[in-house]
Amino acid sequence: MSEEKKQHPFDQMMYGEKNRKKEHSPSQEEHEEGSDGGSFLDSVHSIMNSIDDLKPLYKKISPFLNQGKSK
User: What distance in Å separates the CA atoms of residue 65 and residue 59, rounded to the nearest whole number?
Assistant: First the structure.
């Protein structure tokens, strides 16, 4: 018997061919060299800005939170 089984057409449509060749994926080291450190810093900066924007909201709702905590 052959080890290869014919794949059902629906499975082939949904999941692709079973015998696809695996593409070369870069190693972690290559990925780190090619990554942009600036994008990480941009993400951190946007998170910090979001936290600063939420501080006034927290000041407004903190009395309600303290009232619920004291009960």
Answer: 10
